[in-house]
TrEMBL record, chain B:
Any one GO BP annotation for this protein: ethanolamine catabolic process
Localization of this protein: Bacterial microcompartment
Name listed for the protein in its UniProt record: Ethanolamine ammonia-lyase small subunit
InterPro entries for the chain: EutC (IPR009246), EutC_C (IPR042251), EutC_N (IPR042255)
Record pathway: Amine and polyamine degradation; ethanolamine degradation
EC number of this enzyme: 4.3.1.7
Native species: Pseudobacillus wudalianchiensis
Amino acid sequence: MKSLASRVETLLSAGIDIGTSTTKLVISRFSLMNLAGGTHVPRIEIIDKEILYRSPIFRTPLLSATTIDMIAVDDIVKSEYEKAGVTSDQIQTGAVIITGETATKQNAEEMVHHLSEHAGGFLVAAAGPDLEGIIAAKGSGAYGYSKKTGKSVANVDIGGGTANIAVYQDGRLTGTCTLHVGGRLIEFEDEQIKSISPPVEKLIRQEGWTVQIGDSKYHPDVQKITRRMATVMANVLSKSMTMEDEVLLLGHPPQWSGDVDVIVFSGGVSECIYQLEEENASLAVYDDIGIELASALRREPGLQHYEWKKPNETVRATVLGAGTQTTNISGATIQVESSQLPQKNLPVVEVSFEYETAVGLAKLQSSVEEAIAIYDPGGEGQNFVLYLTDIPYLKFRDIQSIAKKLIACRRLKPDPLQPFIIVLQSDHAKVLGQTLQALEPEQSILCIDQIDIEQGGYMDIGQVLQSGVVPVVIKTLTFHS
Amino acid sequence: MEKELIASITKLVIEKLNQEQPPKEPEVALWSASPKNPAPVEATEQNLERIELKPVRQEAIQRKEQKTHQSRTCSDSLKLEKKEQQLEELRQKTPSRIAVGRAGSRPKTNTWLQFRYDHAAAVDAVYGEVSADVLENLGVFTVHTRVEDKEEYIRRPDRGRQLSDESRKIIKDRCQNSPTVQVVISNGLSAKAVEANIEDVYLSLQQSLNNLKIDMGTTFYVDKGRVALMDEIGEILTPDVVIMLIGERPGLVSAESLSAYMCYKPRKGVIEADRMVVSNIHKGGIPPVEAGAYLGTIVQKILKYQASGVSLVQKES
Ligand code: B12
């Protein structure tokens, strides 16, 4: 007998990372299986991820210092898909992420959305320094190591433009931090300094150093700069940043609780430390401070007391994370209409019930009003996800009151007829969806559950899979910092 | 089988189980110090399965010592705190009694009391009754099986699978004939399961069938029923699908877990493999409201394939 449980469904996933220095792509295949027994309530999970294709590492094509060469990026993706033997309509999930300084380019937003539309059936556009750190930590193995050992593991992903730190303890995200620390912040050409990025310029001025464009790449200040970057890294990891360190901080200071036990370096600069890539993916191509920075980090006294864990991936951590770690699978008992899917780039509005139905009921209306004011002030019909969390034990009567309240909230929306999208943390989607349907049979409803959002304010929901679940990607979309 | 034969087999089993409990293994003896009433066969079995007292980890003991002596360094205590946090996370992952500590070779008093409490709750669940209010609120009437009392219910599962003559007549008179779905509620092995969950499961199931426009017959309650009673009900009322919401044999994790057993056109002589079940419906398992909603979609599938259980799985693939 062929049991239901042993049926495996596969999904093709793409990950595309457009970084400050480099662009790369991976194609992988996920296997989904019902892990609950034949007649149990199904529990669909991703049981295997097989990487089918890894592209070479390309230089990110730029038209100018401020614009990405979109056509060239498109060409890379097209030709790599061809080499991998896949077509874009076969891609059922995955993410395009624009990282580091590239996310600040004029056409960054246009670029990711363009690829998201054209390079796959359900490919998600993502950007934002915290998310980069999280995705890299998942791709490098740091997240897995923390889960396995229970230790507090900081993944430091250092690319061309930024260093994105994500700290995981026992598989739980405890904090993130981003620094202006990267290989390409000073570039050389013909033994001379060709460019210095603005944050480093600031550092130079603050310290009273003198190095400038046109100086020899062996100017003593260059080493001072990379050493300083390493020291700031150490101070951030131990949460003992000084005022002077702040020039290199991008966004918020470190906010994780507790101490870091282990550090994992990923990203291009990590490749200079570990050399995991094949020989011919030569580093000399990048004529910048990457190698100097790597050696400064290796020697930095403030980093010696940590356990250094070798990453599974260096330059490719982010792209692997984007391709293999961004897709979540919803619960199996959900209420969806395939004609309304996929749904993309929806801002997430969280309503915490604080474990009391009355509290949740009281909050719903104001949360929706607030959400409309923020996301759809012009009444153009920007939809959003209502994410209901910390729900207490619910009786049928509670479900009915919540459903009635939700319907009242829907009427507040500028376009009340657009799909009403409700995502629950707990296993209640089917009954809530059915109750909404019973109350308003004509309205379209998307109600999915068992989604935990650890970080990120946007959500994409893919098409219903054979197993009745939907892929869900949670992300950020932050382009200017 | 003959009456005497069944009685003597049951007696043998009980004796055997009692014999198997000398304090050879201290942990076993701790648990099954015989309750006042001779434990029902099934519940005793469960006890044996469930015995699980994980020895506490060295660290937890160290932590205890450290709390009293307070002589260790600060970083030591931080480490222990972290360990404790990790243990707590593990505890959160399972309702099993893990990392509960010990005093010498025994469980701690609290753990022990909790265990006794859970065991008592399990026994109560079997011997309790569903209050009339709950049934009245649902608007269901009560019928009986051929079982006279709880003792007989436990010793004679066969009698719990047959309706009394009077009850046969009652359901024939009062119930809609040949509905698409016939729902039957029974206390089974846990009256508490019905009390705690029936309202939510039932209302949500009703809504779900309504949404799907699936016709539901006249629901009734059977006192002291067994799962296979659905076969006789199927004979009498000829529904397409029977859903039996029945109290599960209580365990030490939950004494109020409900199951929904389902079968497409159950009739006398149906094979067990054609039944199916959604079990573990309770507060800490599948939320009752969600279970009811899910049952509706299973019924839809059963009707579509005109099959249930293993046959359904086969037809589906
Ligand atoms: C006792 C028990 C048994 C006993 C039943 C003995 C008896 N004659 O009473 C035995 C050991 C024979 C048994 C066998 C099986 N069981 Co059983 N069983 C249980 C248990 C612990 C309690 C059931 C209960 O309280 N029923 C209520 C009383 C009132 O019913 P009853 O009329 O007295 O007895 C009937 C039911 O228990 C039913 N039954 C028992 N198990 C199963 C399983 C399935 C799939 C079905 C359709 C019916 C069924 O058969 C009995 C005779 O008609 C549950 C655990 C739970 N949380 O519910 C697992 C449980 C129901 N069993 C389970 C399984 C998988 C099985 C087997 C398929 C195991 C196997 N691989 O062979 C078989 C199938 C038996 C069948 N009838 O088809 C699973 C079902 C999972 C699921 N949702 O599909 C459960 C939930 C355990 C679990 N957590 O995995 N089981």
